[in-house]
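Hi U.,

Before I forget, here's the chain from the pilot set. I'm dumping it here mostly so it's searchable later in email.
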Amino acid sequence: MIIEHNEPLLRLTWTDPVTGTNGYLVVHTLTSGLATGGTRMRAGCTLSEVEDLARGMANKTATFNLPVGGAKGGIDFDPKDPRAMGVLKRFCSAMRPWLDAHWVTAEDLGVPQHLIDEVFAELGLGQSYHAAISRSADPERTLRRVQAGLNAPVPGGLLLGDVIGGYGVAQACLGVAASWGSPADETTVAIQGIGTMGGGAAWYLHEAGVRVVAVADAAGTLYDPAGLDVPALLELRDAYGEIDRERVPGEVQRLPRNAVIGTEADILVPAAISYAITEDNVMDVAAKVVIEAANAATTPEAEAMLTARGVPVIPDFVANAGAAAWAWWLLLGEVGADPADSFLRLRTEMQSKVALLLGQWEMDRVSPRRTGLQLAAANRVERLEHQPEEESALLIP
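Structure:
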């Protein structure tokens, strides 16, 4: 039986006294007195959206058996607006009672990690994992470990903390290909979104030999059936994850932004916005499987239609959980500053979970979401049964 906790513990709405915009915090579950989940900023962000995302975080932490609950923050404001940093600072200041003791947050759509860490530093909280770090027997040592892990350099000139989520998505894709018995170089992928998550996934898929045939940003879809030169395209991105079209090679086709949904590819990775695949465009999906790199990328109605067509959806709380899981492994000292250790741990756990989900799909046509929720529920029950007296006292080394 699936036990899914649909009612959150807390819904909080904040109104910015300067701009009048709204911000939201939803704490879905607390485990050991803590919840984790990023803070996003986008024009049109709603309380119901943040609630859906907090529920997804609760499922994510339970699926990977992390000792923390799920939460999410959201601000209804354009991150490109010059006033955005001020709005973020005031939101975090207002949320300080939660950030100080119970809510571990991080980057999300429209809010890069370095900006939220800058805000935390100004508030005297050090780093956005503060609520967890403060429980450590040696907070300064734990902070150094976290900062070393986040800032560990990886091939390509980026930092481990910036790419680990995308690496996890790439491993989900490779896990799907392995379940089919398909070699990487015979597997094709289309990715909607080329920011932190989509760009990281594209990089590691390209590195593994997969043909990334399409990527989409706000300006449109870039398509090449022979495979895109992903590293070159990533070099052309601006601060908002948009590719400079004037420098794109001439053989690359320029298509409308939404064309990526219907691209002929083995795997479709929506890695940009929530609710990207809906009843209106679901029949355009040509891929054999959808891997949700964005939170809540597929509406329930669209997912039901895909399932009926025989197209499984690897849900977000599995496919994009890499950054959240890794952050807690780092906090708990289970991985350190060596990227190889982090990549091995995440590759092993992600591919094993994808194999479980697809195994149930192939054998009994049980949807990957249902199997994932069953795993999350089982992990929750086991944690409560074995650690009933430790729920409020997580200790971090």
